[in-house]
Amino acid sequence: MSYVIFNERITTSYFWEFRAVMTWFNFDDFGIIVVLFIIIAFVIYYREQTNKRLYPSIKTGLFLDDERYPDDVTWIDYPKGIQWTVVRTPDQFIEAIHAKPYDYYSFDHDLGPDTILDGKHLLNRFCSYLLDHVRPDLPVVYFHTKNPIGRDNMKSYWTCFVNSSLNCSLH
């Protein structure tokens, strides 16, 4: 025997049977609505919990580099399973940080001969953005640049920003 799930007769029949049971327990129409609401809320909650177990959240990252891809960076051990968005120019980077928050950020310092901005300038813009848009936690930041002086400058800037952010949040 096969059923069409939204057959009018079956749906109506189940509703009237449910209503009859509820009136047997002396629920009026308002009580029936409350019970239905509780049942629906439980189903939604159970479905969300099941989805969290079946589909763990995907970690996202923003990768700033004018020529490399995240797979090309073998000298940094990124966590597995990051879904990277690769941006090549300062304009793309600024647009991306305003579009949505990412869990991971990876910076190159030298962004090619066509731009006057480098990775440190964009890190500065990124830190300003973080100050203006409060997040519950700071993202993980990597510096994959091959420029040792640029990497040290960006690391020290980020460290100062993190330390000042932590001090500010404690007061």
Give your account of this protein's structure:
The protein has helices spanning 8-24, 29-54, 90-99, 119-132, 148-170, and strands spanning 60-64, 83-87, 104-107, 140-143. It contains 5 helices and 4 strands. Strand 3 (104-107), helix 4 and strand 4 form a beta-alpha-beta unit. Strands 2-1-3-4 form a 4-stranded parallel β-sheet, with helices on one face. It is an alpha/beta fold and 171 residues long. Residues 1-10 have low confidence and may be disordered.
Topology of this structure?
Layout: H1 8-24, H2 29-54, E1 60-64, E2 83-87, H3 90-99, E3 104-107, H4 119-132, E4 140-143, H5 148-170
Parallel strand pairs: 1-2, 1-3, 3-4
Helix pairs in contact: 3-4, 4-5
Strand content: 5-15%
Rg is 27 Å
Q: How are the strands of the largest sheet arranged?
A: 2-1-3-4
- Alpha plus pi helix count: 5
Structural class, judged by helices and strands? alpha/beta
Biggest pleated-sheet summary: 4 strands, parallel
Q: Mean pLDDT, as a whole number?
A: 79
Order of helices and strands: HHEEHEHEH
Provide the helix percentage: 40-55%
- Count every beta strand, where a strand is a DSSP E run of 2 or more residues: 4
CA-CA gap between termini: 68 Å
Low-confidence stretches: 1-10
Shape: elongated
